[in-house]
Amino acid sequence: MHIIDTDVHESFASLKDLVPYLPEPYKSWIGNGAWRGFSQPFAYTSPGNGNRADVKSADGSASVSDYNLMRSQLLDPYKLSYAVLTGYFYPTGLKLQYGLGSALASAYNDYVLEHWISKDKRFLGSVQINARDPEAAAREIDRMAAHPQIRQVMLPVVDDIAYGHPMYRPIFAAAERNKLMVAFHHTTFAQGPYGMGLHYMERHCLIPISLMPQVISLIANGVFDSYPNLRFMVLEGGFSWLPHVMWRMDREYRQGRVEVPWIKKLPSQHCRERLRLSTQPTEDISGEDWGKLIDLMGTDDILVFSTDYPHFDFDDPNAAIPKSLPSGTRDKILWKNAADFYGLDVRESTIPNQAAE
Q1: Which pLDDT belongs to residue 40?
Q2: pLDDT single digits (tens) 191-202
Q3: Using 50, 70 and 90 to split pLDDT, how confident is the model at 94?
Q4: Domain ranges of the chain
Q5: 151 in Cβ contact with 84 (< 8 Å)
């Protein structure tokens, strides 16, 4: 059985790991501790503090920066055909000093190439950008796109950006001309319409609500129609909400399309053709209800599997996708839909199921 994991989080051990890749003056700033990185606005309540409790280095410390640990816990035991690296570090979260944010994005990309992607042929990479500076972001996409293992641009979902706004068009233009996909992932800054709530459990429930508006924004503001070769991935936000969004957008489009003449298809058609959602965290429902949700989406091409390694709510591929689903549908979720999305050849003879030499 093939498995493609579409959401795997790599990282560095310390922000200072990026110093060798930064130009001045940012090299000195970070080296001297002028900025210490993003801090989460809440406390995790799980034993691993946001990650699996067993994600630890040899000395017992928590680790999300150890390739050999990831290989022993994820890549090899589950025999992954590919793992898409999506990061933890999203410079778009820096709301000022855009030059620093763009330099950090470039430095992180170079760090990942050297310390992660070069170590395993199964890795597929995401270009991290500072979306607040779209022109610089476009240049970074152009710079990174030539690497054969880079397959998508990562757009982090924060609390003040709807990516359908025209100012972000240079990012989508760069992704399209470089034949890269575009992925969206929530961050510690994502929240619902009234904030994060009063409890971590409440905040975690609100994550899908931060992602739904991105889909609506992209379609309503013409991104799908303006860039017909782009395809879009929404990660780590569940999927049971999609039928509602499709129905509601179709309804509003039918009665209000005079205001948005650039939309040339029903929004639901755009979603079925070019939007994909990762399954993690899988809904706690029966296989029968999975089938009903897929029927409501109108296609079994939308869902793609992800573990969300190394997070505490990791989805085991042997348990997360119900075995009661038709085998063809289950295969689509576990690997075929992702292979199609990323343009991967997943014949047995072509799978790079080994570490790079």
Answers
A1: 85
A2: 888 999 999 899
A3: very high
A4: 4-342
A5: yes
Band of residue 45 on the pLDDT scale cut at 50, 70, 90: confident
Contact (Cβ atoms closer than 8 angstroms) between residue 152 and residue 84: yes
Residue 173 main-chain phi, psi, to 5 deg? -65, -40
Burial (0-12, 13-18, 19+ Cβ within 10 Å), 254: exposed
Which position has the token pair 């039918």?
Answer: 254
Q: What was the pLDDT predicted at 349?
A: 47
C-beta of residue 320 within 8 angstroms of C-beta of residue 285: no
**Cα dihedral angle (73, 74, 80, 83), rounded to 10 degrees?**
-140
Q: Give the chain's length.
A: 357
**Residue 183 is which amino acid?**
A
What is the Cα–Cα distance from 286 to 300, expressed in whole angstroms? Answer: 17
Beta strand pairing call for 123-128 and 4-8 = unpaired
For 84-107, letters b (16+ CB in 10 Å) and e give bbbbbbbbbbbeeebebbbbbbbb
Q: Which two tokens stand for residue 137?
A: 């972001």
What region, left, alpha or beta, does residue 222 occupy, with left being phi > 0 and alpha being psi -120 to 50 degrees?
A: left
- DSSP code per residue over 241-266: THHHHHHHHHHHHHHHGGG-TT--S-
Question: Average pLDDT in the 306-333 region?
Answer: 95
Per residue in 196-227, pLDDT tens?
A: 999 989 988 999 999 999 999 999 999 999 99
Topology of the domain comprising 4-342: TIM Barrel (3.20.20)
Cβ atoms of 148 and 123 closer than 8 Å: no
The tokens describing 258, both together, are 């005079």
Is residue 167 very low, low, confident or very high in pLDDT (cuts 50, 70, 90)?
A: very high
Which pairing describes strands 181-186 and 123-128: parallel, antiparallel, or unpaired?
A: unpaired
